[in-house]
Amino acid sequence: MIDNIIKQSMTEDVLISSEIASSMHNPLNIKIYDEIDSTNRQMKDNIRKGEAACPDLIIAGCQTAGRGRLGRKFESPQGTGIYMTYKIDPDKAASNPILITSAAAVAVAGAVRQIGFDASIKWVNDIYVNSKKVCGILAESVCNPDGNRYIVLGIGINYSTGKDSFSDEVKNIAGSLYEMDDNNRLPAGAVTRNRLIALVMDNFIDICKNIDSRQFMKQYRDWSMVLKKNIRYQKNGIWTDGIAVEIDDNGALIVETEAGRVLLNTGEISLRLK
Questions:
Q1: Whole-prediction pTM value?
Q2: Which residues pair with 57 in a beta bridge?
Q3: Strand-pair partners of 126
Q4: How far apart are CA 47 and CA 44, in angstroms?
Q5: To 10 degrees, what angle do helices 193-208 and 97-114 make?
Q6: Do residues 207 and 262 both lie within one domain?
Q7: 234 with 210, same domain?
Q8: What is the mean pLDDT of residues 254-258?
């Protein structure tokens, strides 16, 4: 375990907590692990124990048991991604969980766009670049010993993960922001993971300062890759075809189906473009 520095294999990129903090205009207490089973699990354990020194943000160089939505595995190889969990305090955790997830999607997509990529959002919480999924988001609730409810927000970004690192299950849909050259080096001008983490977290914290205004939902809609598209969604084991016609101010997706309009507002739904 290393708190401040993680050497990234085969590249010059290094995770440094002080560099992340100094790049942000919102102060954060950051803890970095070389390897961990799950940043969400670690943050939840900290909160359940009521640890006074519980960090605001946990980052790992590698996750051995990273998870996504619906219990799916989130592949987290050493040194090639951003695997982090942010602690959302009770005052903000009272917001609609889908609203928080939507805000996180806008924060990540905005940061990825800031560094030069044309990012889009697949409802509810996946970020795509060049038709490949480069980020997943998982929000979970947990209470401290006093019964105060927190939300732990897990964000996983494929930064420079090679194609061979993806399992057969996801290799056709997963991608990375950067591709290593033949000498296992990042391309010239690549933004460091430290800088990208700082951008994502500043974006999200700034949105959360006024999250109930829903102002960020305009960007969510503008960057959506499903609106006005033919889709299929699975709910309770049943697949239904429809057209995604709108995303409301709470982050719910409105779908036009043969049976009429349906409001999708839970994270336990799978969605595909047709």
A1: 0.89
A2: 30, 86
A3: 122
A4: 5
A5: 140
A6: no
A7: no
A8: 96
